Amino acid sequence: MSPTAKKATSKVAKKKVVAKKAPGKKPVAKKALAKKAPGKKPVAKKAPAKKSTKSASVQSRALAAKKAKQLKLAADKKKKLAQQVAAKRAKELQAAKLLKIKKAKELKVAKLLQAKKAREAQLIKAKKLREAKELQAKKAKELQLLKAKKAREAAAQAAAKRVANRLKAQAIAKAKKDREIAIKVAAKKKAQEAKAKAQAAVKAKREREVKARIAAREAEVRRKAKEKAMAEAKKLRDQEAKVKAKEAEKLRKQREIDRLNKVEADRVARREAEELKRLEALDRKKNSKPYAGDLAFLEELRELLIAERQVTAAQVADSDAKAEEMLVDRERLEYDDEDGSSVASDIERDQAKEYAAQLRLKIDEIDVALSRVADGSYGRCDECYESIGRDRLRFQVPVFLCLKCRANV
Ligand SMILES: [Zn+2]
User: Fold this and answer.
1) What is the pLDDT of residues 129-167, one digit of tens each?
2) 276 Cα: distance to centroid of ligand 1 (angstroms)
3) Which end of the chain has less Cβ packing within 10 Å, N or C?
4) Which residue intervals of the chain bear CATH 1.20.120.910?
């Protein structure tokens, strides 16, 4: 179908729609319009038709109106050109061959025009197609939107359902949980009761044990106290016994000491008595005068002593003289002492001096002996106080020790 023919059909369809929608309108007007432009779309009628369409398609309709206008203009142009061509042909026919070149030119122009027309038609077709496509796309979009909306609604419903299900499940779960909790609580309560009972039993047992322990402790304390009292009594008894034993021992010891003391005292007394006796004897002995009764013998001894004294005195005098002499010699010798004779002389002189001293001592002893002859105690040993024998007294002048004591010296 050519674009022109298509246009015509759409126009017819539109006219029908208009006629139906506006029944109150005068058919004359309609007819007149139809007469005036049988192949054209009435502009006046288009407006009400547009109004009746949905707001969504207003724009597309405006586009369609614009398009229709362009189409009408194109159609008018075409018609004019055709009339011009016809007139030209008539003129050409009239002008005949004179206008042949012009005709050819015009043909060319017509061709060009035709080409232009074809291009225009093509353009229109393309535009229409585009529009149709756009419309389709729009519809599809709307459909899509609708679908999406439905899907959203369905999703919302599903979500609501899910929520409801969830709530229900939650309610069930909660109920289950509550039941479980109730069971647990009951079990716990039971367990607690059992525990409390057990604890009470344990407590009672413990109390009994504590009481028993206390009783045992008290019994133990009593037993210990008794034991302690007994032990103390025993200790006391032991102590008393010990004290008694100690006292007895002390007494025994004291007795022993007394006895020993007595023995010792006796012994001491005895010894003292003996010692006294001995001392008395000694004293007697010490003061004994063995030859006091024999005055003749004492006289004999006195004479002997005197004689001896005379001899000894002479010896002393002799010795002294010798020593004096030696001293003089010594003084003399001091000036000429080459052979050490002075030293020898000194020794000799010392010996002489010593001898003289001994002699003088003897004289002293003789004097003592003479004094003892006078008091009658001569002839008694100075060591043992026994009497010295007569012979010893005659031959040893003077003598103060018995032979025995002399030997012990
Ligand atoms: Zn003697």
Assistant:
1) 999 999 999 999 999 999 989 998 998 999 898 898 889
2) 22
3) C
4) 290-408
Q: What are phi and psi of 380, to 5 degrees?
A: -100, 135
Q: How many angstroms does the Cα of residue 400 sit away from the middle of ligand 1?
A: 8
Q: Which residue has the higher pLDDT, 215 or 56?
A: 215
What gap in Å lies between CA 108 and CA 130, rounded to an integer? 32
Return d(Cα 276, Cα 281) in angstroms, integer: 8
* pLDDT (tens digit per residue) in 351-409: 888 888 999 999 999 999 999 999 999 999 999 889 999 999 999 989 999 999 999 87
Residue 399: per-residue pLDDT = 95
Question: Quick one: CA dihedral 198, 201, 205, 210, positive or negative?
Answer: positive
Going by C-alpha positions, the residue among 362, 358, 382 that lies closest to residue 370 is 362
Question: Helix or strand or coil: residue 400?
Answer: coil
pTM above 0.85, yes or no: no
- The CATH superfamily assigned to 290-408 is DksA, coiled-coil domain (1.20.120.910)
Alpha carbon of 383 to ligand 1 centroid (Å): 5
Residues near ion ligand 1 (CB < 5 Å) are 381, 383-384, 402, 405
The identity of residue 397, as a single letter, is V
Structure tokens at 27: 């058919």
